[in-house]
């Protein structure tokens, strides 16, 4: 076990850099913070490169950290590498993973087109996990999966459900080739979601908070669905809408 006291230590500087997307992509690693997220990461120790613990924090007795690198740090360093106002003093450096279409199991998928709010993306991933979806696919323009706010909102679900990246046009083509129907979401030129029969095989496409799904993508879908607005609200939050549709469509 190492102990680092200086906030100017090169290792500390490297950890702080992981709060930026550029460094995360460069190193293919990211930082998770807090007891819950680290505990979720520990369910598969292959996720973890290193555990970092503030000197005033004790490791829970239920955690198995054998064969993992452990570094103790001062509370000052803990605050410096934290993305929260009040840090819990426990962190893990994790590896980015990128599954491929060929390795995916199951036939229910969620496609995300340019969702930009970190809280929305994290909530959508968490809901997809809860609804039993088989994978989430992030298209271009979507907020970084490993943004600390996304990770906190997802509550560890990105460890449980495959999250992939790529051009959604290509993914839709793959689903069409595999006879998996793709349903877009649109308030215009669509049908009520209740007119579609739930199924074990489908892909659901949701879009940007302000602009929705791009018209180019909507032109490639089997059907475009909408959720009727009964009250006076103009529209539903994308995470709420995604949750309603996933739970309805999935059998």
From TrEMBL:
Matching InterPro entries: Alpha/beta_knot_MTases, MRM3-like_sub_bind, Ribosomal_eL30-like_sf, rRNA_Methyltransferase, SpoU_MeTrfase, SpoU_subst-bd, tRNA_m1G_MTases_N
Sorted UniProt keywords: Methyltransferase, Transferase
BP-aspect Gene Ontology terms: methylation; RNA processing
Highest rank taxon of the organism: Bacteria
GO cellular component: cytoplasm
GO molecular function terms listed in the Swiss-Prot or TrEMBL record: RNA binding; RNA methyltransferase activity
Family as reported in the entry's similarity comment: Belongs to the class IV-like SAM-binding methyltransferase superfamily. RNA methyltransferase TrmH family.
UniProt-recorded name of the protein: RNA methyltransferase
Organism from which the protein derives: Heyndrickxia oleronia
Taxonomic path: Bacteria, Bacillati, Bacillota, Bacilli, Bacillales
